Fold Endoglucanase.
Amino acid sequence: MINHLRTLVEATGPSGSEEDVVQLVVNAVRPHADTLDVDAFGNVVVVRRAAHDDARRCIISAHMDEVGFRVYKIGADGFLRLEKLGGFDDRILLAQRVWIRTDSGERLLGIIGSKSAHLLGDNDRSSIVPYAHLYVDIGARSREEVISMGVAIGDPVGFVGSLTELGHQTGRYTAHALDDRAGCAVLLTLLERYEDTPPPVTLILVFSVQEEIGLRGVQALARHLQSDVALALDMTAADDTPEFSSPHLQLGAGPTIKIMDSSTQAHPAIRRGLLAAAEKRGVPVQREVLKGIGTDAGALQYLGQGVPTGAVSVVNRYTHSPVEVLDSRDLVGAVSLLEGFLQDLGNLELGFTSLDEKPSA
Ligand SMILES: [Zn+2]
């Protein structure tokens, strides 16, 4: 799984420019998929069928896109200006390395410049530079030189980095775009579990696009996919660092089972099914109530006439930054939790509540 993650984080794929990630995912799923489709948006939809046609169907979605930018202006001085894709904390953007991905697929290294320490005034020390004032230096001396390198207005820009383990054998890794390439790596690992034997339910794995800018990829899919239940698999934010006194979500304490966030109230049957699957198999999990986050589940819940929907998340520190951190034990836990849930899904009562009498039609 770590190898999948290592490969996936190397690709640059801000929302709407996920082509390189799509290629990696398609290469990885092709040997294991019964059907494989890339739709007009770029969503990759993989079906792995159960042994029986009448088995339930379960969608699990993880997004391929990452927060990033597009080139907004190319100055006469050769510096690039940026427009944002997704939610950022402007404080962390200064002095970062970025890739500019040109239309030919080539990546050019740039850095988000910041005033030299020797030249700072008092105001500079106490103020945050808004992203609209940021600029990228790609070594060019003029607009003409930028253009001759193949850079054009609109080119996607993403953070630079490789997956690296923190400390010594901690099992904790840092990179940009762990959100949500780690979810993609979990889905790839899950799919490989059904290499020799078909899954207990028909599995529809969605590697989605444009999640970070409003769940746009799965919104398109939700109009025609059919499923009995849906899950999103995404990252969520740990608050176990020194800024916070009593953490709600901790790194390494297991994947989270979503109760609510800004986009979803998890369906009670899914929530209970996930909790029971975890308990039965001794997988540590955390319950998540976090208003500041949303996932693909927010769009998947509207499939057809609406389907029971929930979400599983992997806890992540320093989200939407170039130095996101996760614990590999949470990834392993997420695979075990999903595998257990799928095993039990055939017998899971999916009603919103159990009624003594059926409501009249
Ligand atoms: Zn995410």
About this structure: The pocket of zinc ion is lined by residues 63, 179-180, 211, 234-235 (CB under 6 Å).
